[in-house]
C-alpha cells in the first residue's frame, strides 16, 4: 500500500544531552521505555537532523518554519506576528504585530512584568479594544495568562521598532523608537497605544477588585517582538498538500496558521506534561482523513527540559509512547518523528545539538536501528540531514516531487 | 602506486527503493550477486549521495551535470541543446536547440507523435536540410528512432519559446510563442521551419512508400525543449583533466560533449539491458590511456527501472558485475561507482532518494562496508555527500586539488 498521507510528529525540545544515570550516559529519551517508538524505528529509517544548521539552537518558531521547509533566515520577522496568529488574530499582509504582557505600573515604574500572572484579562482586553482610539485600525487580543497580542493595520507601517517592554522589573516603560526608516509611524502609534492603555486600565473595575484583594493591578501593556507578517508562500501552493496542525502551543499554532495549515483544537491539550496525548493522536489521525499532511506538536517535553527535570521529561516520553501504539500498522501514512530542537535539562534551555529523526512508511530503506534515541539514530541510514530537507524528502517518499531535468 | 587517473562509473538510475522479496526488503542491486562490486566496496570507502539535494529527483541530464561538478540550477537550460549535442551537432555559444520528433499529421491534427516509431529517417532529414530555407542558419539532424535535433544559429536568438509539439495525439501543432522578450525572432523562425517541413515531407518518396505499406507517414516535425547552449566552463579548464565519455544514451553523450569530454563510441552499446558492457569497460580502460578522466555510463539499469522490472534490473547488475572483474587491481586509477538518481521499479520513474557511492583507489580511507547496495553504503565512511562534491573529492584523492589558504 502506498503511503500517501504525511504525519509529521514534533516532540518539542525532545532531544537532550546525556547525563550520567546509574553509571551510564543517558538522555530522558534513551532512558525511557518507548516500545512503540522503537518498533517504528526498527521498521523505518533513522538519522540525525540539524533543524537549522549544526550548533545553532533553533527557537520553536524558527525550528518549525524550517521543518515545514521554509528558510527562517529569509522569512522570519520576529515573534509578534506568530504570537498574534497563535492568539487567533487573522494577521494579514502589511500588518505589524507585537507580543504583549499585562503588567503592573506603580509610581512610573513597572514593578511586575506579569501583573501577578493574572489570568482574568477578558474585561481588560475588551476595554482596550473599545476605549483606545488610534490613527490606524488595531486588534488587541488576550492570549493565555498575562499574555496578549496587538496588531496594527494600515498604510505606511514598518515593523522595525524597539520594544516598550523594559524586560526587567523596576524600570520605566520605554518609549518605542524606529530602528529603520519607514517605521516612524509605527513607533508613534505604539507609544500612543501604550499611553492610552494605561489610562483605560488604571481605574478599571477589574483592577479595583484586584487591589482590594492585595493583587497587583494589570494597569499597563508592555509590547515587544514587533514585526511585519512574514511573506510566506502558502503550504498548499508550495507542496500541493492540504495541511492541518494539531498543537497546543501558541507559537506552533501561530507559525502553522501563517503557513496556511488548518488549526485543529484538541480538548485537554495543555502544552504541558499533563496534556492529553491520546486525544491529540486521535485528532491527528482524524485530521488525516480530510488533509494530506498533519503536523502534530507535543510540547510537554520542552517544558520538562526548561524545568530541568530529567525524570519528568523521561516519564512523559513513556506516556507519549503509549499513545503512539495506534500509529503502528498505519499503512497509508508516511510518519516522520523528530524534534524541533534539543532542550537540555542540564541547562534548562535550547541547544544546537542535532535531533533524532525516524521516517516510517512504504518504500523507505529500512536500516538496522531499532531504538529511537539520540545515540542510536546517529548510526541510522538517513545519515545527518537538515531540517529544510525534510519536506522534500517526505514529498518524494509520497511520490509527489517533480523531477528537475529529463 | 598513486592513483592518478579517474574512472567515474554511473549506473544510470541504478539505485532503487526496497520491495519485499522472499520476506526480506531488497532492491534490485541488493538482491543481485555482485562479487566484484562487493570487493571494490570492501577495499574502498562507501557512502550515500544526494545527486542534487535530498528528496529532489534528478533527471539524467541534471544528474550528470551535478556529478561532473556543475550546478544544474545555474547552468541547465533545458534538454534541446543536450539532445542536439548528443545527436552529434557541434552546438556553439548563442545557438538555440530543440528536441524534435518525426510525427504523423492528418487533417490538420497530429495522429501519431512518433510516426509509428519510424526508423528510416535519413532521407527525410536530408530533404529538410536541403529544401527548407530560413532567415538564420540551421542544422537538422536525425537521432535514434523517430527523434531528431534542430539548431538555429544567428544573431538575436533567444531560447525562451513554447513548444510546437502538442505533447498528445489528436491535437493540432501549436504555434510557438516567445516566453520572454528577445525570443520573438526564434518563435517566428521556428513556426516557419515547422510549416516548411510539412511541405517538404508530405510528398516525400519515403512517405509515399510508407503509405503504400499502411505505415503512418512521417510528414511533420514537432519541436520541444527549446534552450540556448548552457554557458559551461570546459571540463579541462575547470579541473585540468583531459576527459572522455563512454556512453550510449544521447542525453549523457550530449551533456558530456557540452562539458568538453571526448565521446568514445562503443560497438554494441545500446543503452538497454542488452548492451555490450564488456566492450564498454574495455573502451573505458583504453580511453584512460590517453585521458585523465573517463565517465562511463551504463543506461540499462534505468531502462529496467522505467520498465518496472525488478528481475531485469537485478539480473543486469550481475552482467555488469561480471564485466567489472577487470576493474580489480587497477592500481593507477581512482574508481568511483555510483548512480545519477534512483529509478524506482515500484513507480517506474526517478525518485529523490540518495544513491550509493563507492570510491576505490590508493589513499582512500577504507571502511567496514563489504557490499555495494543502498542499505550497506548508508553506514559507510563517506557519510552522506552531495553530487556536486564528488569531483572535488576525486581531484583531491588524485592529488590535484589546490589548497585554499596557506
Describe the structure.
Chains A, B: This is 2,3-bisphosphoglycerate-independent phosphoglycerate mutase. Chains A, B: It comes from Candidatus Methanolliviera hydrocarbonicum. 2 copies of one chain form a homodimer. Helix content of chain A is 31%, strand content 22%. Chain A is of the alpha/beta class and 406 residues long. The first copy, chain A, has 2 domains: 5-76 and 233-398, Alkaline Phosphatase, subunit A, CATH 3.40.720; 81-229, no CATH class. In chain A, the strands form 4 sheets. An 8-stranded mixed β-sheet of chain A has the order 11-10-12-1-13-16-4-17, with helices on both faces. In chain A, strands 5, 6, 7, 8 and 9 form a 5-stranded antiparallel β-sheet that branches. In chain A, a hairpin with a 4-residue loop joins strand 14 (342-344) and strand 15 (349-351). In chain A, helix 5 crosses helix 10, helix 6 (122-131) packs across helix 7 and helix 12 (300-306) runs antiparallel to helix 13. The A-B interface holds A 363-368, 379-386, 389, 391-397, 399, 401-406 and B 17-18, 25, 27, 48, 52-63, 65, 72-73, 76, 79, 225, 251, 344, 346-347, 349-353, 374-375, 378-379, 383-384.
* Through-space gap between termini of chain A: 28 Å
CATH architecture of the largest domain in chain A: 3-Layer(aba) Sandwich
Which class of secondary structure composition applies to the elements of chain A? Answer: alpha/beta
Report Rg of chain A.
22 Å
The averaged pLDDT of chain A comes out at 96
Kindly report the oligomeric state of this protein. Answer: homodimer
CATH class category of the largest domain in chain A: Alpha Beta
Give the largest interface. Answer: A-B, 29 and 38 residues
In percent, how helical is the residue content of chain A? 25-40%
Number of helices of chain A: 14
Poorly predicted spans of chain A: none
Give the total of domains of chain A. Answer: 2
Determine the CATH topology of the largest domain in chain A. Alkaline Phosphatase, subunit A
Strand fraction band of chain A? 15-25%
Anisotropy-based shape of chain A: globular
Specify the biggest β-sheet of chain A.
Answer: 8 strands, mixed
Q: What's the number of extended β-strand segments of chain A?
A: 17
Question: What's the name of the CATH homologous superfamily of the largest domain in chain A?
Answer: Alkaline Phosphatase, subunit A
Question: What's the arrangement of strands in the largest beta sheet of chain A?
Answer: 11-10-12-1-13-16-4-17
